[in-house]
């Protein structure tokens, strides 16, 4: 894997504490093509081997700016944003009906699913090397597709992911002017067995519930296969475009 990247490279994972984020980190650590993984989370545990753990609150721009300054010299070729919220086990729950909309929940979901990743793109994208393939990817979700929404429900989560897709698309266009070989995309991981999906797994067939390890590995293969001509889109774990 990682054959498309020109040389051994450094990688960044934001949300490295999560189910999919930690699987990304492990895949990267297992590759001879990857030098150092800078693994960000809000409350990092100790790093080991090639994994350097660092604290990040991506809603604090001063912290993001300081970390971007740190990353400048490392010039990561791969930036993965694997943060997100669907429920918090308490007040934040996916809404089934309009009458359940609540300003506090909507703000919280958009802060984590849209604003944090967008601010991360603002500060971290400029640290990608100008020459050779580089990739910035954030995990979105198929339910963020407006044209694919036949089921309804999950108002805030769906809308925050649709807005994330627009942030990614717009960033990709701006980037392509100066980073000619860069790829900036969203990813749909499938339904993955993590804390985020746990309360909603009952209707999912066994074979359709992926392990984090499998989903992360497939998404890294997809990123490996992408070219700059495909920037600005959303791809699922199998490499298929998810329509906006
Ligand atoms: N699992 C699925 O079936 C599925 C399907 C489609 C899309 N996705 C997307 O995949 C991504 C990863 O989800 P996951 O399944 O791996 O869930 P997860 O295990 O719950 O991980 C969520 C990650 O988001 C971080 N996070 C949550 N609230 C945050 C906040 N306020 N500020 C900063 N970071 C915060 C968590 O960090 P802390 O440890 O600091 O809380 C954690 O690293 C999400 O974007 C999710 O929407 C998942």
What does the model show?
This protein has helices spanning 19-29, 61-72, 103-124, 155-178, 212-225; strands spanning 9-14, 34-41, 51-55, 78-81, 134-139, 182-188, 191-192, 209-210, 234-236. By secondary structure, it is an alpha/beta fold. The strands form two sheets. A seven-stranded parallel β-sheet has the order 3-2-1-4-5-6-9, sandwiched between helices. A two-stranded parallel sheet has the order 7-8. Helix 1 links the parallel strand 1 and strand 2 (34-41). The longest helix has 24 residues, at 155-178. The chain is globular and about 50 Å long. The relative contact order is 0.16. Bound molecules: NADP nicotinamide-adenine-dinucleotide phosphate. Residues 15, 17-21, 41-43, 58, 82-85, 112, 116, 139, 141, 189, 191-192, 194-197 line the site of NADP nicotinamide-adenine-dinucleotide phosphate.
Overall, the morphology is globular
CATH top level label: Alpha Beta
Overall mean pLDDT stands at: 97
Q: Classify the helix fraction into a percent range.
A: 25-40%
| Number of DSSP helical runs | 5
Pattern of helices and strands: EHEEHEHEHEEEHE
Sheet bearing the most strands, described?
7 strands, parallel
Radius of gyration: 17 Å
Give the structural class: alpha/beta
Q: What is the fold named in CATH at topology level? A: Rossmann fold
């Amino acid at each position: 894997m990682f054959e498309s990247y020109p040389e051994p490279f450094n990688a960044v994972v934001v949300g490295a504490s999560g189910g999919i984020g930690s699987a990304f980190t492990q895949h990267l650590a297992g590759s001879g093509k990857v030098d150092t993984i800078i693994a960000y989370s809000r409350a990092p545990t100790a790093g080991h081997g090639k994994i350097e753990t660092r604290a990040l609150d991506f809603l604090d721009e001063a912290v993001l700016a300081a970390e971007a300054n740190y990353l400048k010299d490392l010039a990561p070729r791969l930036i993965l944003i694997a943060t997100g919220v669907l429920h918090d086990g308490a007040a934040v729950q996916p809404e089934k009906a309009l009458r359940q909309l609540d300003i506090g929940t909507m703000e919280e979901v958009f802060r984590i699913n849209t604003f944090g990743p967008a601010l991360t793109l603002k500060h971290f994208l400029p640290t990608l090397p100008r020459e050779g393939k580089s990739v910035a990817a954030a995990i979105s979700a198929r339910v963020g597709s407006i044209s694919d929404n036949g089921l309804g429900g999950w108002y805030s989560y769906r809308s925050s992911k649709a807005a994330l897709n627009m942030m990614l698309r717009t960033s990709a266009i701006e980037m392509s002017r100066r980073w000619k070989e860069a790829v900036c995309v969203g990813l749909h991981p499938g339904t993955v067995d993590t804390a985020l999906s746990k309360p909603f797994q009952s209707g999912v067939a066994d074979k359709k519930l992926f392990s984090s390890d499998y989903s992360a590995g497939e998404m890294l293969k997809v990123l490996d296969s992408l070219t700059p001509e495909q920037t600005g889109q959303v791809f699922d774990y199998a490499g298929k475009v998810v329509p906006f």
